[in-house]
Sequence to fold (220 residues):
Amino acid sequence: MRILLVEDDELLGDGLQAGLRHCGFQTDWLRDGESARLALASEEYAAVVLDLGLPRLDGLSLLRLLRGAGDDIPVLVLTARDATTDKVVGLDSGADDYLVKPIDLDELAARLRALIRRAGGSSAPTIRVGDLVLDPAARRVYLDAVPVEVPAKEFAILEMLMRNAGKVISRAQLESALYGWDEGVESNAVEVYIHHLRRKLGHSRIRTLRGIGYLFEAVA
Fold:
């Protein structure tokens, strides 16, 4: 899943981006609130990790702008402000979760997965479609209870398709889940990964709708 990290500390931001990518999140990193505001207006993200003490536009102001515009994207505030009043203000301003630095990366990743699950209307830790189960935390896929080897890029595509089973997902949306700003988009990458997934999981699960996108069938 693609997320936006907004953190002005260079050392921490670089470490968090690398760590979150290792946990399976395609992570774009910005260093100020105004750039984040523009990115959120033009890009599609599953969640935001937001520092409060940001230049140009502070985190609370950005959060209030998002909620005032009706944007319900999950936002996890990550800040050094540990006073109870700061937590109350952050949560009452629209934050979905609040973590105080320093943080444990595994806990941050788990909280993000929980936020994304709830935003998608599910509380289950795994995604199940028929006899196919995807475990975002363990990065594992099971077909009829048998493990299936699925590399990272294929896993990202499969997760997006399964989370949206029964809905058409465009090629652009899948590319967005695969690549960050600092990565080049390969012209036929999506088609190649879809081909590999069909070979492993069966050809009837993922339908290609020419000129529209891909549909993951609720029943294979």
